[in-house]
Known about the structure:
Blueprint: H1 3-19, H2 56-77, H3 93-114, H4 121-136, H5 143-152, H6 155-163, H7 169-183, H8 189-195, H9 201-249, H10 255-279, H11 292-298, H12 303-313, H13 332-359, H14 361-364, H15 369-381, H16 389-410, H17 418-429, H18 437-452, H19 472-505
Helix pairs in contact: 1-2, 2-9, 4-6, 4-9, 7-9, 9-19, 10-12, 10-19, 12-19, 13-15, 13-17, 13-18, 13-19, 15-16, 16-17
InterPro entries: Tcp11 (IPR008862)
Family: Belongs to the TCP11 family.
Pfam family, one: Tcp11
Amino acid sequence: MPNSQEATSSNCSDFQKNIECNGRNTRExxxxxGGDIPNLCPPEMPTxxxxxxxxxxxxxxxxxxxxxxxxxxxIIVNQEFxxxxxxxxxxxxxDRVKETLHKAFWDSLREQLSKSPPDYSHAVKLLQExxxxxxxxxxPQQTRLRSQIEEALxxxxxxxxxxxxxxxxxxxxxxxxxxxxxxxxxxxxxxLQKLRVIADPVYLLRxxxxxxxxxxxxxxxxxxxxxxxxxQEHSVQYERKxxxxxxxxxxxxxxxxxxxxxxAAAEVSSSDLKSTSSTSEITESPVRSCPEAHRDxxxxxxxxxxxxxxxxxxxxxxxxxxxxxxxxxxDKGRLQAxxxxxxxxxxxxxxxxxxxxxxxxxxxxxxxYEDRLKQITKALLVGLPDTRLEDALLDISNQIHQExxxxxxxxxxxxxxxxxxxxxxxxLKSLADKDNTVRVLIEQRIQTFLRHxxxxxxxxxxxxxxxxxxxxxxxxxxxxxxxxxxxxxxxVFGPYYSGILKELLLPEGMADPGTVSC
Length: 518
């Protein structure tokens, strides 16, 4: 299976695991939206019900629907999405089983063709399969070529020739290769030319089938590329429709999403309370002159702020625990990769900031030297889990120290003193501590930048906070990907977020915030 399909299978299981994680009650949501919640009316959200038992056909149907939705989503958000040839790991169980079965089949075909008279039973079946593969590659308007294939590979005639020992496999394979040359992409031309010199009919048939499989994949990828603009136009409605169909089958399917938003709401409320308390002694809020209920509404956290906080929390998610939001499951792998990149960029920027503050501007004012230090740091962090960050920073501190002394020597300056060397290494190694002041400062500045990337349709500013200039190119690329991903998610699932946030933020029985005024 191609990598994208493996991700689809994983997402299916994750989705079903999350939507069945518990059976908390979910209230029915109101029909209208208010405040700065996405201006969409929430769909009908089924209330929770006792666990249901599904038949195997129903489970298969549900898994297929998840796969369809995930593949459509993958095509939209991943511009590099394409099907790829299956390649099992060398000497793996799958690879050995595949090779054993293939060898047994082709050895059997060779044995049949070597008989006197030859036995063409397997060969006829292969020719039928090749004919169907060629026809599957035709466009609807290629009626003339379809008729030619039907005539040249007339299976009734081929079976009669096989029964009488008069089947000419060489002539048939020559016509098949000529037809493949008409239908294949230019990238396959060289491989087809190599097939024309193969004299062994068994090996030739095997290679023809292999290349036909690749041509099918080429056709599918071409179709995906052609249909992508059309899919982008309708993807939001399609994904939302499919998701709603899944919720109808599996009630109570937004439990983890609700918990995710509840946690973000608590964080925003806590932050707002701290901000309010710091200014309450300076000025009196006009809310005090309002009725108590109205005051609650005005002090309610902004729904957009809550949703943005929830999105930011995805970049710092503990993937070792359950409860990932159902509405973001299709992007779980991408968000996990973004999280790793953001963490790596924070360490790189912190390493360069510490190095610059310790060594002064001598090294960093010279063209290319700062980039050289960045590449050294990046190379030592690639693929490294957080549990080994301390070991990596030890290596980084030694490498940075050596490189800085080498650069100072090239520039005609004296090497770092023993005290400066000890300070540099010590401060670099201390970045392994999550509470390190420099590391926390850099992470906060990266968060500030990425939060701006969440504005719908907003342009990403290239004016980065101080200390992030060395990672500007990488951070802008991460911000673009993160913003596009989140904005698509907001469009698809905005109605669901609206309903949940209204229940979480409004006091019970309170009217829509848009109708409240003081």
